[in-house]
Design goal:
Blueprint lengths: L28 H8 L12 H5 L4 H23 L9 H7 L2 H34 L5 H11 L4 H12 L4 H10 L12 H12 L1 H12 L3 H9 L4 H29 L3 H6 L7 H11 L3 H29 L2
Helix pairs in contact: 3-15, 4-15, 5-9, 5-10, 5-12, 6-10, 7-9, 10-12, 11-12, 12-15, 14-15
């Protein structure tokens, strides 16, 4: 029917995108349809794949907590509240005030730093030779390094004992040629022998990331530098070394963490005068039955290791390792 002047027609429902109508309110069906793509009575959205697969995460986390986290919590609790009594920090005060702990901490730090430095120098040299100096068997050496990473540390120490031990190959040859009653090689049971064993065992952990970094290096840079008359030492210093710094930092951080926690090498060398933090834990717990002191040393060792591992993760992430 016709409308009088000024009279409007019946109200129409607002439609999304209509040029003459205001947008629908937040509670209207149109708004709901635009926001979620669903109207009233529509089926709920499908469950996210993570929500469907999340049920199996619980058992592994529970098993990890029972097998690892719970014993670790017991160690921390024993360090603060010993079964034998004493104040909350009594065991820490006794351990920190002992000369044995200070000596073990100093020995652990300098052995770890020395081994890390030796691994960096030797690892960088070996990686440069394997990657850039053509020689027969380079590929086999590179693959052997991958296999070497799976060897246990005591196996390397045992091999060094066969060579440099008191009755090892080197001493046997020396006594045979000189006629002396004892051979001259007796350093393996000293801190220097432990240092040699750690450098021998951990160097491949530096070589492996370096070889991966060198495989990404543009050889055209080396050719241009050689074409301009640069000597090999200068090419290594100005072209190869800058590219290797991230891998060196990542590998060195990993070696430092592992050297701080190394136990088998120190034990198998028979270096009685070398006591590191892991050896101190072994001595306090097994030989002296002082479990409170052993737990304190273990907590300190764990704290140092976790801090350095966090540093390793940061360096590795920045290095792209």
């Amino acid at each position: 029917m016709p409308l009088a002047a000024g009279q409007t027609g019946p109200a129409r429902p607002a439609e999304s995108g209509h040029p003459d109508l205001p947008p629908a309110g937040p509670g209207t069906p149109a708004a709901v349809g635009r926001a979620g793509g669903r109207g009233p009575g529509a089926a709920p959205p499908p469950a996210h794949p993570r929500s469907r697969a999340g049920w199996w995460v619980g058992p592994p986390v529970l098993a990890l907590g029972l097998v690892f986290l719970y014993p670790l919590a017991l160690v921390v609790r024993q360090s603060f509240v010993p079964d034998g009594g004493g104040g909350a920090l009594g065991a820490y005060s006794a351990v920190f005030g002992s000369g044995a702990f200070r000596d073990a901490l100093g020995t652990t730090v300098w052995l770890a730093l020395g081994a890390t430095l030796g691994c960096l120098v030797l690892g960088f040299t070996l990686a440069v030779i394997i990657a850039f100096v053509p020689f027969p068997g380079a590929r086999a050496v590179s693959r052997f390094i991958d296999v070497f990473l799976s060897f246990p540390s005591f196996l390397i120490t045992l091999a060094l004992l066969f060579i440099y031990g008191t009755v090892g190959l080197a001493n046997g040859l020396a006594t045979e040629f000189t006629g002396a009653a004892e051979g001259p090689f007796r350093f393996l049971a000293t801190p220097w022998g432990v240092l040699l064993a750690e450098i021998t065992y951990f160097t491949p952990f530096v070589v492996r990331p370096l070889l991966a970094a060198f495989s990404q290096l543009d050889t055209a840079q080396l050719e241009v530098a050689a074409g301009l008359g640069a000597r090999p030492a200068r090419i290594v210093r100005q072209v190869i070394l800058p590219e290797a710094l991230p891998a060196l930092a990542a590998g060195g951080s990993l070696v430092l963490v592992m050297c701080l926690n190394e136990f088998g090498i120190v034990l198998f060398t028979g270096a009685k005068g070398v006591t590191t933090l892991p050896m101190l834990v072994y001595g306090k717990a097994i030989l002296e039955s002082d479990y409170a002191a052993a737990c304190v040393v273990a907590v300190v060792n764990i704290a140092i290791s976790v801090g350095l591992f966090g540093l390793y993760r940061v360096v590795s992430k920045r290095a792209g390792a």
